[in-house]
Specification:
This protein has 219 residues and is mainly α. The chain has 3 domains: 55 residues, no CATH class; 63 residues; 78 residues, Orthogonal Bundle (Multidrug-efflux Transporter Regulator, Chain: A, Domain 2). Helix content is 46%, strand content 11%. The protein has 12 helices and 7 strands. The strands form 3 sheets. It has a 3-stranded antiparallel β-sheet. It has a two-stranded antiparallel ribbon with strand order 1-2. Strands 3-4 form a two-stranded antiparallel ribbon. Helix 2 packs across helix 4 and helix 6 packs across helix 8.
Length: 219
Amino acid sequence: MTTTLKPLASYGPRQFGDRIGLSEWQFDRALRLGLIPPADQGGRWSAAVFDEVVSRLDPVVAAVGTLPDVGAARAEAHLAERLGITVNPGTAAELSRRGHLPARGDYKGHTLYCGLALENLSDRRKVERASRAGHLHTRDEAARILGLRAADFDHLLRAGLLTHAETTVSSWHKHTVVRLYRQADLDRVLRAPRVDFEAVRATPKGRPSPLAALPTRTG
């Protein structure tokens, strides 16, 4: 692939990317991966460096991939479509926790995940395991999964046996923060030896919950 534009003595990042047909994110990724060397003329690239990159442009384009760094929802939708499986909310964050999907900064407070790693993530079992473990639930959903009343669930939070994994903003009330709980944390709580869940669930309505005896976590 070659350029037909008049050669320049040096190139800024926008000129460099535009002339070789790379979008801004592709150019930035090529720099990060070392596929394009650092600027050698005070923040600009010499014609010699530009020509050298042009001479191997096809491998550079192939190496940077076609997917930009994206937020969790887009990452999860991409995996669901490509792998043909159900991908629950929270999967991207869980894949990142497990070292399979690096975070690449954020946009307006939302984590961005590496598009290149996402393109190369093809292990269906890894994604399915992360989808189950990372599945996020609202407070009411989490209490229902545990088989607990709302007051029982609140005792778990008070005692520090469970905490939220992420937050989101309510779709109904835009200034209301909603706490979300991870499936793997719910599974862990169910295995906790400190809690007799059968006794908690068997407690009649109006009677104090056995969980009320749990000490309040401090600090």
